[in-house]
Amino acid sequence: MSRNVFITGASSGIGKAIAYAFGKNGDDLILCARRIGKLEEIKADIERRFGVNVYIFELDVTKYDKVSKTVKNILRKVSKIDILINNAGLALGLEKFQEYSITDMEIMIDTNVKGLLYVSREIIPNMVENNEGHIINMGSTAGIYAYAGAAVYCATKAAVKFLSDGIRIDTIDKNIKVSTLQPGIVETDFSEIRFHGDKERAKDVYLGIEALKPEDIANVALYVANQPKHVQISDVTIMATQQATGFMVHKK
Ligand code: 8X3
């Protein structure tokens, strides 16, 4: 049966791959991102390929008022959200903590932590009302293992893991599943964004390693979402074969 799947950060990378995977699976999609132009292209392509309904909304998850209004608007169109995939997130910078840009730190916290909780706080009451739902949060190996130059990014991803666990406890009697996916190195525009558009520096990150692809994470998200009603996958860590821990990578 087709489900309504709400995905944040759906215009590129892992979020976009997840949209395609669930669309192919026959689910209807509610896609949010800041770049509405990209979402328009994705909507047209997914609807044409898979014949599902795709609703798109311009959304900056860091703005609570906008999140609240947009979710109300969405719930007028589709009365029920079955699955929420909190994927929007980013890393900015890779410097020693004592030299870090305060703005970069704040943007990471606003997006990865506050954005996730704003969206969840607005959507979970709908799941509670329906007495079912599934929240899939995008954590990271960075939330398990801290690494140099990434104190704040790692802290935001550790926060994602604990928000998942806390929400799972608070919704235990409502048939709501909560899962955290913790990917390692995935080749997307992640590093280009982290290095403020420095393509050369971004390319170096993926040299000598067969990194994960966004589709690898999307497959896992779909697997997690397609379990029987009584099965809840709480956490999944996904790494490239050449990655042993968060900071231990074997480069050829
Ligand atoms: C992304 C994983 O190792 O590039 O969340 O920080 S890593």
TrEMBL record:
InterPro entries: NAD(P)-bd_dom_sf, Sc_DH/Rdtase_CS, SDR_fam. Gene3D superfamilies: NAD(P)-binding Rossmann-like Domain. Keywords: Oxidoreductase. It comes from the Bacteria. It holds the Pfam family adh_short. GO terms for molecular function: oxidoreductase activity, acting on the CH-OH group of donors, NAD or NADP as acceptor. PANTHER family: ALCOHOL DEHYDROGENASE (PTHR42901). Belongs to the short-chain dehydrogenases/reductases (SDR) family. This is SDR family NAD(P)-dependent oxidoreductase. It comes from Leptotrichia rugosa.
